[in-house]
Every structure is written in C-alpha cells, then in structure tokens.
C-alpha cells in the first residue's frame, strides 16, 4: 500500500496545469477522513486509504471539473457552503459585494429591515446577510427549484430564517406586495457563450450565466424600483466589467441621476453598482 506522501507527489507529477496543489490536498484530506491541512501533514506517512476512490476523483479534476463540485463544498466569507451542479460556485467578487452592502446597511438602516437576495443560487448572499443582520426579514428568490433546494440546505446548516421563493426574478416579491429596504443581486449577465471560460461552460449551470441582452435583469429591477423598494433604499448589484455605459443609460432613463455609484473590485475593475436613495 502506498503512503499518502507517495500518492501526493505522484499526483503532483501527473497533474495538468489547471489542477492546483491545494485541490489535490483537499482530495487527500477527504479520502483519508482527515480534518485539515495540519492533520494531513501529521498523517503524511500513513498508508493511503481509499486509493481507488481518490484516483476517480483525481481523474475528474484532471478532466477540468471544479474541486467544489467534486467535494460539494465551497467557501464564502470564511464559511463552508454546500454546492452542486445546480448552482454557480460562489466567487470572490460576490464576497466583496456582500461586504460592501453590509457596511452600507450598518450605517444607514435600523435593525428591522427587509432584505432580498434576488437570484440566490446557493444562498450565500442571503445567508451571509441574515447571519449579520439578525433583526432583518430576509427573502431569497431563484427561478431554479434545484438551486432553491441547495440554498435551503445551506439555510438549515446555518440555522437562519430566510423565506425562499421560487420564481422569475422579482415577480414572487411583487406578487406578495413585499417592500424592500435592501435588494442584493448577482444576476446572469453574460451575453455570449464564447465569453465564458470553457470549464465554467462545461460544468456550471448555464441558467446562472447567460442573459440577453447582458443588462436584461438589471433593467427589469431598476424599472420596478417604485413598486418594490421603500422610499429610502439600497440596491447592490454585481455587474460585468464592461457594463458601466449601458447601465448608466438605464439609470438615467429611470431618473436616478445622483443616486448611484459604480465600485471597483480588488483588481481595479468596475464590478459593482450601488443605487441608493
Ligand atoms: C450568477 S448566479 C448567482 C448565484 C449566487 N447569488 C451567487 O452570487 O453565487 C445567478 C442565479 O440566477 C438564477 N436565475 C437565472 N435566471 C433567473 C430568473 N429569471 N429569475 C430568477 N433567478 C434566475 C440562476 O438560477 C442562478 O442561480
């Protein structure tokens, strides 16, 4: 029987460029029923357990599948969430969206606010905000029932109280006459398949990626601000990096001059739009 160390170095030698060392370590941790990287280093010279299972999972990594789908785990703001192929793997930019929105909420609203995460996917935005703003009423919507199932599973893990609504964008909220103080949304915003990284296209849900035109979902929400939002509100959007011009046009058509600002991500790209009144 080979040791974990032998399997680790053998896999490092064979791995393709897209596979990272940490992906291999994660698989070794899972297959050897270990708890952490530290645990792995302590047991590095133990006999490898479940070598066959490891080989199968390693082959999936080599084929381009993301480690998060293989392990059914993704991290978001330091916590582990359940994910599967029904939901987008949460991105670093979305962590920044939530942090920026949470800072704004802290200083501009009282405790008993109403928040919605529209296009919730795995539920990471709604759950992070519900955990931070315990007095808030939080809704989360998605058109995909299987995505809502994932979000509910995560909701149960974190034991927060979110109302999940399956349906088209903001329709379930409008149908219930919900009035929001805060709406956070990371909608699909990519117009053409060719703009999408091939691994993302192969493994992540197309429903989470594509919108035609790219501004479609932002426009629907902005057009309905008066029906959906309270007088004093925040809308926080994640956006594609080349959308400033087209979104500015929509904002101006809706009389929102002076009520919005675009924000950059940590790489200096404009990736967020905040509308405030
Ligand atoms: C970019 S993903 C965002 C997921 C998650 N909020 C995140 O940030 O990781 C977009 C989500 O929008 C959902 N979606 C696509 N079209 C929709 C629609 N018309 N109404 C509601 N949700 C929709 C998809 O199912 C997907 O979960």
Task: Provide a quick synopsis of the model.
With 277 residues, the protein is of the alpha/beta class. Helix content is 43%, strand content 19%. The strands form two sheets. The protein has a seven-stranded mixed sheet with strand order 5-4-3-6-7-9-8. The chain has a two-stranded antiparallel ribbon with strand order 1-2.
What does this protein structure show overall?
The protein has 277 residues and is α/β, with parallel strands linked by helices. The chain has two domains: 4-64, no CATH class; 86-276, Vaccinia Virus protein VP39 (Rossmann fold, 3-Layer(aba) Sandwich). It contains 13 helices and nine strands. The strands form two sheets. Strands 5-4-3-6-7-9-8 form a seven-stranded mixed sheet. Strand 4 (137-142), helix 8 and strand 5 (162-166) form a beta-alpha-beta unit. Helix 2 (21-31) runs antiparallel to helix 4 (51-62) and helix 6 (92-108) runs parallel beside helix 7. The longest helix has 17 residues, at 92-108. The mean pLDDT is 97. It binds S-adenosylmethionine. The site of S-adenosylmethionine (SAM) has 22 residues, from helix 7 and strand 4.
How many domains would you count in the coordinates? 2
Please count the helical segments. Answer: 13
Strand order of the largest sheet: 5-4-3-6-7-9-8
Shape: elongated
The assigned structural class equals alpha/beta
> What is the overall pLDDT average?
97
| Named CATH architecture of the largest domain | 3-Layer(aba) Sandwich
Q: In sequence order, what are the helices and strands, one letter per element?
A: HHHHHEEHEHEHEHEHHHEHEE
The CATH homologous superfamily of the largest domain corresponds to: Vaccinia Virus protein VP39
- Rg over alpha carbons: 21 Å
Number of strands: 9
Which strand-content bin applies to the residues?
A: 15-25%
Helix content: 40-55%
Task: Write out the distinct hetero groups bound to the structure.
Answer: S-adenosylmethionine
Main sheet specs:
7 strands, mixed
Low-confidence parts, pLDDT < 50 over ≥5 residues? none
